[in-house]
Amino acid sequence: MRRLSLRLRLALLGAIATIVALGLAAWALTGLFALHVERRAVAEMELQLEQVLAGLTLQPDNQLGISSPPTDPRFHRPYGGLYWQLAAADNVLRSRSLWDGSLDIPVSSVPQAEAQIHRIKGPDGAELLAVSRSVTLPPSLNGGMVTASVAMDSGEFVAARNAFAKDLAPYLALLTITLLGAQLAQLIFGLRPLRAIGQRIAALRAGETDRMGDEWPNEVQPLASEIDELLKMREADIERARFRAADLAHGLKTPLQALLGEAGRLRERDETASANSIEEIASAMQAHVERELVRSRVSIQAKNKSANVKKVVDQIVSVLHRTPRGAELEWVIDVPTGLQAVIDPADMAEALGALAENALHHARGEVRIDAVEHDRQIRLSVADDGPGVPDHQLKTIVERGKRLDETGTGTGIGLAIAHDIAAAVGGRIELANRPAGFVAVLVLPVLGTVAKLQ
Questions:
Q1: What CATH architecture does domain 305-453 belong to?
Q2: What is one Pfam family matched by this protein (predicted)?
Q3: Is this prediction's pTM over 0.85?
Q4: Which of 15, 34, 368, 392 can bridge 332 by disulfide, Cβ–Cβ 3.0-4.6 Å?
């Protein structure tokens, strides 16, 4: 299963965190607003409670009465949502809003200095928030204990809280969009160095640079430095291997020359079969040595150079045209100027020279060399009008893992070396028969491939 990208993962986590945080903030703000509204309502009801107690008077029938009840119109409208009540031992006074109901307030037998808050059921079944206080009446009001209460419908608090939440919602939505946009911008600019790392590594692979450099942010610089150290160690290892291969090759040259000399002496004594056998073995060993020398040279420098394709082709054709066999052939060249391949010019000359020499040996009358740029690659074709290669042997040649010099098709060590050189720079050799002969295509990366991809 494919994992989520780092950018998408951070975006999802950030979006979830932002939404959850703003949701909690909305819940907390709404709760704080409701608490604030309730406190204001309690303070208002305490003031109205003081008005009820201050308005107590003794009526002509020696009963308690209210001379100046609170003036809020909700007290005078039946079930208006705001109620007051005064409960004495033998008498209960209530607001008109209570109609024939009453507030179920616990009556205390002890005077209360502070108002008490209750949550009770109202006369119409609604939830009420009530404030009550029990006080002792003075002798002028016949003494005794009374409990004064003021209550308000809790639905008003809920309505106020809902209205606040409704008003808050658009601003929270705008804040959410702003935060998500800021987060997206942070991801785009914050993760840009990671994309730049990928581009720089691609440039390393294409040979357009040889190090990551030290211009990275502090968080990324350790990674770039480790890559540079790894490249440095790899180059040192390859250099040592190249020297060892060169030493081995030079060490084998003298024994090989001695074998060839011994074969010559055998031939002088008319021991032709033995001489041929020794020369064949020595030639094969020499070909392998030359191939390994080419490999060791190309592996260290192939991707750090560039070659002008037109110039290399002209040099190869100029040399081959001076040979007796080359002078007999017609050379048709169609290579645009300005094509630059990611390869050392000497290596390209060796690879192309092998393909051109193969065409020279098998052509009947014409060799055609042309080059085109396609899909960020240079396709350099060398075609001849010779007999070609049997199809079953051609498939063996191009099969991955086969050594081209061991297929028995007559292509020899030259094509094997050309294959190794092309592979070292990320290219390849394509071989195919055609109606008019045989064609070998040298595929090489174009210089500036990474820049084009960006």
A1: 2-Layer Sandwich (3.30)
A2: HATPase_c
A3: no
A4: 368
